[in-house]
Write a structure and sequence with these properties.
Helix content is 46%, strand content 27%. It is of the alpha+beta class and 161 residues long. The chain has a 6-stranded mixed beta sheet with strand order 1-6-5-4-3-2. The longest helix has 37 residues.
Amino acid sequence: MQLLPYKQETFVLPYPAEEALNRLRPHTRPVEEGFEFSTAEEKRFLFNGVVKKGIFRISRRVQKPENFLPLLLGRLETTSVGCLLFVSYRLFFSTAMYLVFWSVVCLLLTLFFLIYHQAWLYAAIAFGTGCVQYIIAIKNFSWQVNRSRQELEKVLFSKEG
């Protein structure tokens, strides 16, 4: 069972792995130090990250903070008629730690109120708060995965590539 939000999928691409990377590179802003781009160039980037031979590690570029934005980890494998792209969507480390921390705090509060004070109402409130924040995290992550997937598909399946 997966406790943290996570999704995996496979794309079947009708062209070689190197072409897939060549389609992705122009739309990915490098995250290494020393790269500066003009305002016009910045607008063409759909992703931030690293695209290397056979793999990539990217995230969708956003204009405002998105707490549950997924990190896309991709691996390409060549086949006889194209390539397979394996993509996994996962939370950034800091977001995962946020989710784990507050889930543990809510669980400990629930146990504290149940064991030491027999305060069923407060225990239910703490447990309910933990459940609600977890559900919100799952839903937001799912929504962000769909938006990131749409951007990735736009790049991989565009006619101009």
